[in-house]
Amino acid sequence: MALSEIYSTSLSLLTDLYQLTMAYGYWKQGMAEREAVFHLYFRKHPFGGGYTVAAGLEHAVEYLQALKFSDNDLAYLSNLKGSQGQPLFEQEFIDYLGQMEFSCDVDAVPEGTVVFPSEPLVRVRGPLLQAQLVETPLLTIINFETLIATKAARIKEAAKGDTVIEFGMRRAQGIDGALSAARAAYIGGADATSNLLAGQLYDIPVRGTHAHSWVQAFETEEDAFEAYGEAFPKDSVFLVDTYNTLEGVKRAISVAQKLQPKGFVFGGIRLDSGDLTYLSQQARQLLDEAGFHDTSIVASNDLDEHLITHLKQEGAKINVWGVGTKMITAYDQPALGGVYKLAAIKDGEWEYKIKLSEQLAKTSNPGILQVRRYYNQERYLADMIYNELEPLPNTPQIVDPLDVTRRKTVEEGAKHKELLVPVFQKGQSIYTLPDLPSIKAHTKTEISRLHESIRRYMNPHSYPAGLEGNLHQFKLDMILKLKGKSDK
Amino acid sequence: MALSEIYSTSLSLLTDLYQLTMAYGYWKQGMAEREAVFHLYFRKHPFGGGYTVAAGLEHAVEYLQALKFSDNDLAYLSNLKGSQGQPLFEQEFIDYLGQMEFSCDVDAVPEGTVVFPSEPLVRVRGPLLQAQLVETPLLTIINFETLIATKAARIKEAAKGDTVIEFGMRRAQGIDGALSAARAAYIGGADATSNLLAGQLYDIPVRGTHAHSWVQAFETEEDAFEAYGEAFPKDSVFLVDTYNTLEGVKRAISVAQKLQPKGFVFGGIRLDSGDLTYLSQQARQLLDEAGFHDTSIVASNDLDEHLITHLKQEGAKINVWGVGTKMITAYDQPALGGVYKLAAIKDGEWEYKIKLSEQLAKTSNPGILQVRRYYNQERYLADMIYNELEPLPNTPQIVDPLDVTRRKTVEEGAKHKELLVPVFQKGQSIYTLPDLPSIKAHTKTEISRLHESIRRYMNPHSYPAGLEGNLHQFKLDMILKLKGKSDK
């Protein structure tokens, strides 16, 4: 379901005030419609990982499609006051906004694609005022969904083929923190969600067990299991740790045995506390002894990729992982630091722009950038960020942004493709949004094409991704020139 | 603006699947309408702090007011399939849900109130099915907004009277992660937000400066400042670190001097990188030398309560703090671990319920709980959680949950009030939602009534809050009895 079907309010004010003050300034200077190029990118993989899974484009597209100031929005802006009580904006500017139609070109990396630092995930080219205005919502949407998709991919990797269920709604950061994260987690690797509304809106498979309160509501644990088993003869997962976990497992088994003649299928048990390794091993033994070899052991309780790996190494007998807080909030790094930077502006000719930083690697890249990915039959080899406005050398070099003396030339015969695809042309959406299962499948393929040393979630190898040599040199020259000018 | 005006979709499926499977189970067992009591509470203050600011009640009330399964919701539930392709729910149950009207009593702590571990923030009493169903959305809403309000309160404390602006939208966890956090941050202590939609929806003051891209879009920094100053002669804050910060300050000053004859008021400069202490001191000196004593120095860049305190101790000359990522996501603890536990169920008589845990302090509390707060003229003295169904002793004792040998009797003459107030009676809302300025003012008063040792944001003293002695003894007896039963 599209954003515009979920929200009844216009989302056109979903941006920072300063986007509107700058818009007003550009408009007053007659610069509002000067053509400009911005790139949205991040500088560092989240979670200390070796790759990032792009997500959020669908919501970004829907936001842009609906971008149109409503009368209500305009009235709000008209009423904004400055510090001395004066109107912040002239009425003529408000009228301009009211007539504004989004008319930018947008190119973006499809959801589920693996991406690397400095690579534009979204490129916006069009009137300066508009391209600036959309900065904040694009960042909010892409930063968050990319973060969660990446977290989920790491957790799914750690689970090594086991089922992973997203259980985090109760700890999510607000309603959309739960909804769009459930979608992003599904893209990244979660197999299902407990969030019914996400199931309904995005057609994600939903899964669940029962709570402790279910057991507490009955006189005995046996009564509780039996009642649940009768309600769901084919789909019962009994939560066994309300009182004493291993006693709970035994009671679950005896209830399953009692209900079996009526066609009951013993789906699983869930462990939610205690020593998950020991308890799962004991539970597996009890289940196996009773002949319930196919009964799953589901675990939950503050799981993330690190704990799952640790439990597996210890020999835990868990085959379904219910992951909550740590996935839905990306607990160990709850924000991706994506930025949105001006890279070129046209005043007759294109002028390139960079934002200086104390660190070379953090200085933004000038141009109208595209990313070329080189690959062979088995895997992705290297990515090269280049300026579409400049001719490419016959044998381009890729300069490592963290060590500019490391330069790579891609092996002969490597194929390549461009990562940014057209999404809007002059404000018209020309991109067919893939359905969610396709995006999920794309993610899986993408990750499978990375060498396992890059997929390692701690201390991974670094995938070769950098600037095309001429672009790198041009940027260096620009920095030196700007520093000289600025220090005068 | 109410949730139902923001969302066009029904939010009745905004819950975990297992709430519906349990609902179905209760319905099948004829237990759906058995009266039950649940409490929503947290076990530990976030961020290692000494107090927590309750928030989210308004959204919780709006969610409950709108709780009604739509035809669309019912169709979705009808179509849910079990693992063998069979419908998960019987049609008769779907019809039951379709006719269901929310009919619980809800009592809650007003937004902005300071609260302590184990104290119910929300108490729901009513038909078991309904009271269970609302668990997840109440947790999502209250956990998140309480977390952010508390974070903002800590940051405002650290700022010691300086202005704090919430700047975090671009790093927020989704659209509502930005919106409801902007509101919660305002409740907790932020003075304004950069988020225009939050400004529009909740009538929060909006503030902003300009971005680096504004400066980059012009030939020179001077041109950029001059253009901005002309657009906002009374409200300009110049971002000075695009090229070289102190050169930027000098340029801002010369532009301000140039524009002054036209009535320009030099609002401020913003620092967004580098050594904020050194730069702010130098900037202050430059501004003062030029006679701009009232010009603010705004700082941003990964600020939180710790960094603000550190900068102040170092003598930074900053008087407006733009706080982004660390506040909007509560970066150092992005989830409050609030829980929702069954505490009593009526089957003829009330039966008390607890959820055992390996730690006594984590075991839930039985009864229909209320919180009594004792206070004198100056400050809050102690909180006592007690069971409304049992008579209170004349001189009640408060038992420290972390050391049950510590018992406190409140000083004679102390006044007291009950924290939970009626919000819904038999499903009808009977609570007048306070307006946002009142909630914000309430927070400020609440925090001012805590001893400063409790307000200290690192290693605070612990405010005396615990169980009334009889309730404590009753709980102990219940635990021992349950453990005996469970180990049999």
TrEMBL record, chains A, B:
<comment type="similarity">
    <text>Belongs to the NAPRTase family.</text>
</comment>
<dbReference type="GO" id="GO:0034355">
    <property type="term" value="P:NAD+ biosynthetic process via the salvage pathway"/>
</dbReference>
<keyword id="KW-0597">Phosphoprotein</keyword>
<dbReference type="GO" id="GO:0047280">
    <property type="term" value="F:nicotinamide phosphoribosyltransferase activity"/>
</dbReference>
<dbReference type="InterPro" id="IPR041525">
    <property type="entry name" value="N/Namide_PRibTrfase"/>
</dbReference>
<comment type="pathway">
    <text>Cofactor biosynthesis; NAD(+) biosynthesis; nicotinate D-ribonucleotide from nicotinate: step 1/1.</text>
</comment>
<dbReference type="Pfam" id="PF04095">
    <property type="entry name" value="NAPRTase"/>
</dbReference>
<dbReference type="InterPro" id="IPR013785">
    <property type="entry name" value="Aldolase_TIM"/>
</dbReference>
<dbReference type="InterPro" id="IPR041619">
    <property type="entry name" value="NAPRTase_C"/>
</dbReference>
<feature type="domain" description="Nicotinate/nicotinamide phosphoribosyltransferase">
    <location>
        <begin position="165"/>
        <end position="345"/>
    </location>
</feature>
<dbReference type="InterPro" id="IPR006405">
    <property type="entry name" value="Nic_PRibTrfase_pncB"/>
</dbReference>
<dbReference type="GO" id="GO:0005829">
    <property type="term" value="C:cytosol"/>
</dbReference>
<comment type="function">
    <text>Catalyzes the first step in the biosynthesis of NAD from nicotinic acid, the ATP-dependent synthesis of beta-nicotinate D-ribonucleotide from nicotinate and 5-phospho-D-ribose 1-phosphate.</text>
</comment>
<dbReference type="GO" id="GO:0004516">
    <property type="term" value="F:nicotinate phosphoribosyltransferase activity"/>
</dbReference>
<dbReference type="InterPro" id="IPR007229">
    <property type="entry name" value="Nic_PRibTrfase-Fam"/>
</dbReference>
<dbReference type="Pfam" id="PF17767">
    <property type="entry name" value="NAPRTase_N"/>
</dbReference>
<feature type="domain" description="Nicotinate phosphoribosyltransferase C-terminal">
    <location>
        <begin position="372"/>
        <end position="475"/>
    </location>
</feature>
<dbReference type="InterPro" id="IPR040727">
    <property type="entry name" value="NAPRTase_N"/>
</dbReference>
<keyword id="KW-0328">Glycosyltransferase</keyword>
<feature type="domain" description="Nicotinate phosphoribosyltransferase N-terminal">
    <location>
        <begin position="13"/>
        <end position="143"/>
    </location>
</feature>
<protein>
    <recommendedName>
        <fullName>Nicotinate phosphoribosyltransferase</fullName>
        <ecNumber>6.3.4.21</ecNumber>
    </recommendedName>
</protein>
<keyword id="KW-0436">Ligase</keyword>
<keyword id="KW-0808">Transferase</keyword>
<dbReference type="Pfam" id="PF17956">
    <property type="entry name" value="NAPRTase_C"/>
</dbReference>
<dbReference type="InterPro" id="IPR036068">
    <property type="entry name" value="Nicotinate_pribotase-like_C"/>
</dbReference>
<keyword id="KW-0662">Pyridine nucleotide biosynthesis</keyword>
